Amino acid sequence: MMLPALIIVPLIAALVACLGGRSRADWPRWVTIGALLVDAVILAALSSPVPTAGLAPGWLAHFDAPWIPQLGIAVRLDMDGLSLLLLWLTLVLTLASVVISWREVKEHVGFFHVCLLATTAGIIGVFLATDLFLFFFFWEIMLVPMYFLVAIWGHERRVHAAIKFFLFTQGSGLLMLLAIFALAFVHRQAAGEFTFDYFRLLNTPMSQGTGMLLMLGFFVAFAVKLPVVPFHSWLPDTHTQAPTAGSVLLAGILLKTGAYGLIRFTIPLFPDAASRFTPVALALGVIGILYGAVLAIGQTDMKRLVAYSSVSHLGFVLLGIFAWNTLALQGAVIQMIAHGISTGALFILVGAVQDRLHTRDLRKLGGLWHGAPRFSGVFLFFAIASLGLPGLGNFVGEFLTLLGTWRVSPPAAILGAVGLVMAAVYALLLVARALLGPANPQAVMGELSGRHRVTMAVMIVAIVALGVYPQPVIDMAAPSLRHLGPVTAAAPLIHMATSQDLPR
Amino acid sequence: MGAVAPTNAILLAAILFGLGLAGVLIRRNLIFMLMSIEIMLNATGLAFVAGGARWAQPDGQIMFLLVLTLAAAEISVGLALILLLQTRRPTLDSDVGNRLKG
Amino acid sequence: MQQLLALVPALPLLAAVLLMLSSTSINTNGVRILGVGSVGIAALLACRIAFAQTGAGWAVQPFDVTLWHWMRIGSFAPDVTLHLDGLSMVMMLVITVIGFLIHLYASAYLDDDPGYARFFACMNLFVAAMLVLVLANDLLLLYVGWEGVGLCSYLLIGFWYDDPANGRAARKAFIVTRVGDTALISGLFLLATMFGTLSIPALMQHATTSWPMGTAMPTLAAFLLLGGALGKSAQLPLQTWLVDAMAGPTPVSALIHAATMVTAGVYLIARTHVLFALAPDALLATGLIGGATLLLSGASALVQTDIKRVLAYSTISQIGYMFLALGVGAWDAAIFHLVTHAFFKALLFLAAGAVILRMHHEQDITRMGGLRTAMPGIFLAFVIGSASLAALPLVTAGFYSKEAILGGAWDAGASGRLLWCAGVIGAFLTAIYIFRLLFVVFFGEQHHHPHGVTGWRIGVPLAVLAVLAIIGGALQTPALLGGIAIMPGILGGVFGTAREGALAVLPLVVASLVPLVGIGLAWRWWGAGLTSRFETRFTDLLRDGWDFDLAYDRMIVQPLMWLVRVNHHDVIDSVYEGLGALAKRAHAGLSLSENGRVRWYAGWLAAGSVAALAIAVLS
């Protein structure tokens, strides 16, 4: 019963927040925080692995209830290490976004938190569902409240951005729905039962062409979310226009649902098609890294810059997922978490600038360090984390990803490393244009508030911890990644080296 | 009185229909447009009658009765609408009535 | 005692974190105690550990300290392990001792600067990162230090952030070195993929056992590592950042851009010398690049008019010597020169800083002159530093280390002789440019009067470094001159016993005389102050550092920026936005037909019916 509680608690809290929000502005905030803390307690209880009978190795918890038995649809929730990690990330970032929008959101406070909680519930569902129909259900659930978050509390061009976000994700989601149905039918033809159960659909035999088509259906849905160039273009607009909390949720978690989907569904369901698709996916990853970086360099809107840097960073994740080995997959998982924290923090900081100075335009900013050295120090820290400084979380992710990629394709790894140079360019340009330079009378902002400081401190600690001791995360994710694709542990390739060199 | 060849009757009906249509398209006065619609309806009626005579079936005349009734109903509703319009705006020009345009 | 090794980098790191956290509330004295004190204690600890580990014949007992397991993925398991052997011990001592002296100096140099705490936070962080770099037992941990020092270099070059030019210089330094780092990290990928580990001893062992000499794999790996070293050590073709890096405060230039960080590339190659020894092509390239760099930047140093730029070009040139030494396999000579260079170049920078400070932050040597009488102490320090840099025979440290390099080159076959020639010409240039600087600044007539006096916190480091710049030569002398072998003893455990080169008197004598000739020429030309008798287009080219900046700007920066500008609005996005615009256009077009005119509708109705009938009848 713990798993559905994770989803239901935020939904109930949303109802309570909505009803109470009319009279007292702070009521929804506290309700939301309370609900998230309850979720955190439940999750903490689940985190300590208790060996439960009847679970496949690697899985930590299971829940099963009938929903539409005629069609083989059930409420099936399962949790493994990967889900657990992402759930923690979700809770932490949602909590952060509640805390930092304390001052920023003043209108429709109740409904704001309803949307926030509903999105969270949808995301938690996505990370838990192991019934494809249920998965799609949650996939759609998390979009609608997100749409409202952007469209109501966003900035200048919020409606345009919200519609764009909705069209992209909805369109690609429909492709996935088609693929889900097709997969269920293919499975019925082969096995004689109509089911949406993830575990039974694994290893469904199908022809090469069908497999590729269905795999692409899933891939496109997740690629839009991730986002993979050329499906990325909703992201800069949406991030730029979303309120800070929305940007944090989008960058921190929603994008990770794409990567999660690739790891959980696309590759295990269609291993053959995915492995044939590998060269294209690697190329897309590299293109994403470089293209995102080039665009980030050219931006003058801080939020847009950070958004394009996300495109670049998540290229690494795609690379890691399609490198087909444990090193790269572990790298991708760490990159997902580190990116969630570092980019989330950057959005919070940019949001603070926007909130106080009412501009995100780098041409009007500069010299912030004079008035706000602490704020600037934190900003610098996360900019540097984002350019992949060793010792911080992002580096571990990027290094492992590229190391794993090197086995498959050294050119892809080298181009990825070139992306790191470009990351230095845009991150340092952001720092220089926003923080450095002579004092600017138009851009004097005070220090961060206490709430912001606590949030930032937690995130700094998290990203340092991830950088210097990522082992807990690695251990947690390891069982989920073990069964993916051909097992290639980090075995030395000495034999290959000698056999190449000796004959000459 | 010799029987009219069915083709001639259909031809006449077509000509009448064409005249009516032209009237609807060309005239801007609502009354004249209604009258033109009457002509078109009667043209179809004529075609039905001619068809009934050609195949010696009663259906054609039944249809003609139906068309007559329809035309009467239509003209009464149409005239009522025109009267209402007339009270709002002192014009019978149909093109001025496009304020419902979406 | 061995466990205390971790404290050596940990203390400055801790101080850096404390300073960062309290940067707005701590007072100047607190900063001094934390910032200078932590490095001082680290230096004492380092000396104590070195003392404990050095045995008979100066041999160093190597040991490892594993702090924690970094990560374990399959068999790939980099650890956070510190490794102390002769090489890392020498580096550790240089970093902590010279680091301490420069910190002490900086505590006076930056008095009254509003960023006092920030400065020492970065400096301490730098010392910690540099120590991690040299103590790392694992290439991945080394890379942490490698990028960490790059970050500190960035922060400190742009320390005075008011001026956007400083920020640009800092960015340039970081990005150009990062280009080299791309090669380095690719090398790490290659090695880790091949051997499943990045632990340096294990790698070296695997490399010798499974890679035959001169094959493609070790050559590729060595070239990739070399790429990283070139970026960090400002060698051709990635040398352009170092001169601009002089925008930082002078103590930064002394510590980071002369004594320690820029020599990290030399350290890297020395550390992985087993791999380089397997790759003669990479080694030859190292030597040739070193030779070319020392000549080109030595020539550039001849015509600079900014006191720090002269020293910057000189640094590039001297590191060129070290690369030359590495290229001919004279590993210990390279490290020896690294050490003496740290002494005399830090001395020169600090002395220059003292001059700059008393000249109201004036760096242009054409406005200096005749300072000999006004600041005799600094003058003496500068003379000692210049003499050591110019390798004045017998009495200076620089002479012995340069001799070791040139001797190594002389013994290394035909390519070695070529490099020897480059080295001798470079020594000639060195003597000319540094004594030109000395004469122009301290001789001739006085243009501007200095103010104030030089305090003890500036004086003491200068004095200590001046002594070191003279007696540092006693670490290793040729057999002809006593044959002291402290340095070979310490490094013997790492590089193996130094081979005894044939005693060649001729090259020794030639190399000793060349600096004297250079000094004489400098006196003849500039003894009476700066004259502009050599101004030609060629000297302009030299002054701009052979226009590498211009070339890179045209070849790389401009095209990238063009791409960035052209694609500012994201071509792919415009496709989607175009689809949206198309939908809107279609909406506008179709809604034209919905004009509310009854007759218009009737007409379309009729036309449509006719068309439908026509299709039904005719088809």
Question: If you had to describe this structure to a student in words, what would you say it looks like?
Answer:
With 504 residues, chain A is mainly alpha-helical. Chain A has 21 helices and two strands. Chain A has helices at residues 2-20, 26-47, 81-100, 109-128, 132-141, 143-153, 158-191, 198-201, 208-225, 234-241, 244-269, 271-298, 302-321, 326-357, 368-371, 373-386, 393-408, 410-434, 450-468, 471-482, 494-501, and strands at residues 59-68, 73-80. In chain A, strands 1-2 form a two-stranded antiparallel ribbon. In chain A, strand 1 and strand 2 form a beta hairpin. In chain A, helix 1 (2-20) packs antiparallel against helix 4 and helix 11 packs parallel to helix 13. The longest helix of chain A has 34 residues, at 158-191. The relative contact order of chain A is 0.10. Chain B is mainly alpha-helical and 102 residues long. Chain B has three helices and no strands. Chain C is mostly helical. Chain C is 71% helix and 2% strand. Chain C contains 25 helices and two strands. In chain C, helix 1 (7-21) runs antiparallel to helix 4, helix 13 runs antiparallel to helix 14 and helix 18 packs parallel to helix 21 (505-526). The radius of gyration of chain C is 30 Å and the shape is globular. Chain B binds chain C through residues 21, 24-26, 28, 33, 94-95, 97-102, and chain C through 591, 594-599, 602-603, 606.
TL;DR?
Chain B has 102 residues and is mainly alpha-helical. Helices cover 75% and strands 0% of the residues of chain B.
Gyration radius of chain C, to the nearest Å? 30 Å
Main sheet: strands, sense, barrel of chain A:
2 strands, antiparallel
**In sequence order, what are the helices and strands of chain A, one letter per element?**
HHEEHHHHHHHHHHHHHHHHHHH
Number of helices of chain A: 21
Q: How many helical elements of chain C?
A: 25
Strand content of chain C: under 5%
Total count of strands of chain A: 2
Structural class of chain C: mainly alpha
User: Based on helices, strands and strand pairing, what is the structural class of chain A?
Assistant: mainly alpha
**Low-pLDDT residue intervals, each spanning 5 or more residues of chain C:** none
Portion of residues in helices of chain A?
over 70%
